[in-house]
Design brief:
With 278 residues, this protein is mainly α. The chain folds into two domains: 6-134, no CATH class; 150-274. The chain has twelve helices and no strands. The protein has helices spanning 9-17, 27-36, 39-52, 62-81, 83-100, 108-116, 121-134, 150-165, 169-191, 201-218, 225-244, 252-274. The longest helix has 23 residues, at 169-191. The chain is elongated. It starts with 8 loop residues before the first helix and ends with a helix. This is Abortive infection protein-like C-terminal domain-containing protein. It comes from Polaribacter marinus.
Length: 278
């Protein structure tokens, strides 16, 4: 399967907008793969993609498209199994891409998506330097903090609003999923750093929920337990909806309703969590 993981789908879309297919065929990229020791792994994935392809077209640059699919699978593997190397690879890739590319490249969307994924500050800062050196400034706010805040949440909500307006309801759920993971990771990094290795979204939500309950009880703060429990319930609902969306049989009204509901739920959970990370 050559589809990106839901959590990194927006990032992959940003890369495709950079027209990376031609770059992936270059000596510069192959030289980088040799340098960091992934040349054999890249070749194995590429051959798998090539052998799995079921369509051909006269004049089609199959190497280009197979290279893009290989890139997607590589990012999937790194994100799932080697998170630190995932962020370092993105930094390295963008660095050599910008050196190769003769045209100005706007990395703004990629920076935002990596920020949502909780990329380390050092990685984000270096990519921002690439962006500032390569293009004219654009009138868009870039969030540099690794910890989530109200401004970063607003950026994610705005992305959801745009995707709903454009009828891209599947993308709305992807943004909702990514936003929740970023919120939970930011919360845990600040309040429960010993739990930062957890990756499962449902387990992340439980860690946050249990911490909030314990914090309220330790400080003798009365709270509606059902409301806190909704953090886990809503997270599981959005996760299941996102994973099964393409196989569901909603009509367009139901799809829009689900997307709007997910957007509002993420906004509500985000406002609560941000009070504990800002």
């Amino acid at each position: 399967m050559n589809e990106p993981l839901p959590i990194i789908e927006p990032l992959i879309s940003g890369y495709k907008e950079l027209n990376i297919g031609d770059f992936l065929k270059t000596k510069q990229f192959k030289r980088y793969c040799n340098k960091v020791g992934i040349a054999d792994f890249w070749r194995q994935i590429f051959e798998h993609v090539e052998n799995s392809r079921t369509f051909y077209s006269v004049g089609m640059d199959t190497v280009r498209w197979d290279s893009i699919d290989t890139f997607v699978i590589l990012l999937n593997e790194l994100f799932e199994k080697e998170k630190n190397n995932f962020f370092n690879f993105n930094l390295d890739f963008l660095t050599i891409y910008c050196e190769w590319n003769q045209e100005e490249s706007d990395l703004t969307e990629i920076i935002e998506d990596l920020s949502i994924l909780s990329a380390p500050n050092v990685v984000l800062d270096k990519i921002k330097k690439l962006n500032n050196n390569g293009i004219s400034p654009v009138p868009k706010t870039i969030i540099s903090e690794n910890i989530w805040n109200a401004e970063k949440l607003e950026l994610s909500i705005n992305k959801m609003d745009v995707s709903i307006k454009n009828g891209e309801y599947n993308l709305t759920l992807t943004y909702a999923y990514s936003c929740l993971e970023g919120l939970f990771r930011g919360f845990i990094e600040k309040n429960i750093p010993e739990k930062t290795e957890e990756t499962d979204l449902s387990k992340l939500s439980k860690i946050v929920k249990d911490y909030l309950k314990s914090d309220f009880e330790n400080n003798n703060i009365e709270y509606p337990e059902q409301m806190i429990n909704l953090i886990g319930t809503i997270t599981n609902a959005i996760s299941n909806a996102r994973n099964g969306f393409s196989e569901s049989h909603f009509d367009r009204n139901s799809e829009k309703w689900l997307a709007e509901f997910s957007r509002d739920c993420v906004n509500s959970i985000g406002r609560l969590i941000i009070k504990f990370v800002e």
